[in-house]
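ARCHIVE CARD
Drawer: 12
Card no.: 0347
Subject: one protein chain, sequence and derived structure
Cross-reference: see card 0346
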Amino acid sequence: MAYCVPEALTRAERVGERYEMASGEGFVVWFTGLSGSGKSTLAAMLAAELPRRGVHVESLDGDVVRTHLSKGLGFSREDRDTNIRRIGFVARLVARSGGCAITAAISPYRDIRDEQRRAIGRFCEVYCECPIEVLERRDAMGLYARARAGEIKGFTGIDDPYEPPRSPEVVVHTDRESPREGVARILAKLEELGYVRPAAQPAEPARTGLVPPHGGELVDRFVRGETRLRLLERAAGLPRVTLDERGASDLELIGNGAYSPLKGFMTSRDYLRVVHERRLESGLVWSIPITLAVPGEDAGRLSLGSEVALAAPDGRVVGVLELVDRWTPDKDIEARDVYGTTDVSHPGVASLRSSGDVYLGGEVWLVDRPVVPQFPEHPRDPAATRAAFEARGWRRVVGFQTRNPIHRAHEHITKCALEITDGLLLHPLVGATKAGDIPADVRMRCYELLLEKYYPADRVVLALYPAAMRYAGPREALFHALVRKNYGCSHFIVGRDHAGVGHFYGTYDAQRAFDDFLPGELGIEPLKFEEAFWSTVVGGMATDKTAPGGPETRITLSGTQVRELLRAGKLPPPEFSRPEVAQILLSAMRERAHDQAA
């Protein structure tokens, strides 16, 4: 008996039908293109989006594969083909098990790519096309220039051929298409092929646990037991570098997994991509460079491939660096791109300028915490906060970053966030801050009192974020969100001037920064709040969205105004700050004035 397909059957229905017929079968998305053409970025974005369509993804980045699967291979044609066959073999296994393997390697030769297409079957080739003159202009590593000068031999596109695919499923012109546009077209092709469900038929599974760490794995670089003792003994004979306050904080946060997926201080490849593109070399979103800066004379006595003992500011050996990279950064470019200014009145730029002029890169191992822990009754490691959330049965956790006492506006937005989540991580930064910021011990007393009196005890975890403040505005807002994802947060509060200072950033720039990335790439949902104030019209806390009236009906104060009141011995109005919190601040201000007078 013959069956007719109604003409009215929609494209989405046809694609959905093909998807159901192909369910259980995996596929491979094979990115190819010259160095710097955007393969890793597009691959990372696609890898973040496909799980939202119900697809399990494994990523096979070219550099990662060469490190772990093809170590020892060179760049002859035979070795390149062997590398691609190894990638194809693993990709085929992933597809056979029902997943999607995403490869991002140059794979310059057409025959070997076509060989993989025949072997795999369900295959989508994506050609990242970009004119070589554009690639040379935006090559932060200077690889093309070095190849032109003969310093690098066998460089694809210069003295080794690249053979573009003849009939790829998708061509992304990365010189004139945005990554978002490119990923949208790749997804459309995968839908058309029947490999993924259309966006109108989402299949993202309900999460049964905490949000996974950034990159999928919580890093742990602490060395324990006998291994620690042996490493300490070996470190005694190594050349030594002494960390500054920021470096010490960064080392602890690499070691405890707060900076996952980082396993050490960045190499130049990661550093340059982060500075220019807010991504690691792998394509994963990351907005702040985590670098180890040392004076040139110290760097000059170190050999690549060797180990370096890392000493805390107090002289203790606290870790070991496996040195694999050393370079002199352009700090003007770093200041401009990361902080948005080269003005040394910006505290982040001032810190950058005062640091060493050479950067060291490589993985690290910790034998001790670089900073003696304060407030030991509160957790400071991601593993500890995640365990606390799990014990309480939380899945949706909102993080709140603060370097100031919590006033009524902060209380208002955190409680609004609690209405839609299981719990709140109150996560004050307790590392280095700029002059004039309120000391951590004073702030901690304020937090503890406020939580005791005004928050439900079973809905809040107070933990420590032992980081140095960078004041990088929009970039630091993204960074703070990704770090809180590692601590177990699914949501993150972003205010109107998050991590800003002075006049350097526009109102709500930090919130807009999140719009540059696909939600799946970040893996944490920003909660964007407008400035809150006490409204005399409604008799309570409100924002522009919830209260009528002009400025004369709003009670709000700047940090400068609050400090002026405290110095004059006056408490801020109760509509701005809880009186008990204000009293702690006033007492601390008087103690400081007394100590300075003495």
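Annotation on reverse: The mean pLDDT is 91. The chain has three domains: 11-193, 225-366, 391-465+471-597.
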